[in-house]
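hey so i finaly got around to running the thing on NAD(P)H-quinone oxidoreductase subunit N from Candidatus Synechococcus calcipolaris G9. pasting the sequence first so u can double check i didnt mess up the copy paste, my clipboard has been acting weird all day
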Amino acid sequence: MALIAGNQFVKDLEQAGALAMVVPPEGGFEGRYQRRLRSAGYTTLHLSAPGLGDLSSYLTQVHGVRPAHTGKEDIRVYFRPPLVNYHLEQLPANSKGLVLWLIDGKKLSQQEFAYLALLPTLEPRVKVVIEVGGDRQVGWKPLSQVAAA
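ok and heres what it spat out for the 3d tokens, dont ask me to read them lol
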């Protein structure tokens, strides 16, 4: 897809709900697409895909987090609110929705791709964009195709 296709990117994201992107390894070009999303009325949330753990718990359920244990204190568990639900509650009134922008998505499993492709159907105000690899130019396709492969 050409760089001028930013409006087409927004239309494809609204239609598919979740997109898998390939971007040049030097970066920078995807910022133009993020700017198109913001001008279309979406709020973006950037996350690094590796290390998220159980996606369904981290994104949509209250989940426990245990800090590193040094051996000199009791093991503690802190409970955090669901990330997606928290950000949806904080959206401005005129926002179309929340776009989860995940970088380094090539390290995710097929099961995680399938869940992220399903997430926009569970919560219609959430859209997902995952950077799944590198190429000479920016390109995208529906995440459901990547999850099925």
